[in-house]
Amino acid sequence: MAKLQGARAQTTLLFTAPQSVADILTAHRSRHGPLPYPWILSVTSARQVFEKAGDLSRGVAVTQIMPNPASRVVPLAREFQDVLDKAGVSDNRTYEAVEGFVTAKVVVEGLLACGANPSRELFISKLEAFGKREFGGLRVHYDRNRHSGPDYVEIAMIGNGGRIIS
């Protein structure tokens, strides 16, 4: 903490697990005051950070690789909500769930491209021939040399009560 404070950082990148983020926020606050503009990655669950750090997590910025699941503007998020509504599911409307939703769409497209006799090898070759596609405003790109999918990045923030603001 002393090194961090001595660096007079303008922002702090916390690319670690939720418990570690909570521990750092707590330790820094107790010794030096609020951590300067902390950021976490989307793989660090903002919900879990809030559960572990409480109000200390308010203001933590989160880089998200999917659109806000509550958005009514982004067609993909609207479709996600509509599917959950139709299924009677009222919880798990999270960024992680949207990522799973998109992953399922890509997997289904890959399997459909395999035809009646899918195999591991055929599935891989179909995904590597996937190219660029759009799912409700979210562009994904898979090919032989690129297996990462979307290029999307959105900045969100943990707000009061752990609510995500984007």
Automatic annotation (TrEMBL):
<dbReference type="InterPro" id="IPR028082">
    <property type="entry name" value="Peripla_BP_I"/>
</dbReference>
<protein>
    <recommendedName>
        <fullName>Leucine-binding protein domain-containing protein</fullName>
    </recommendedName>
</protein>
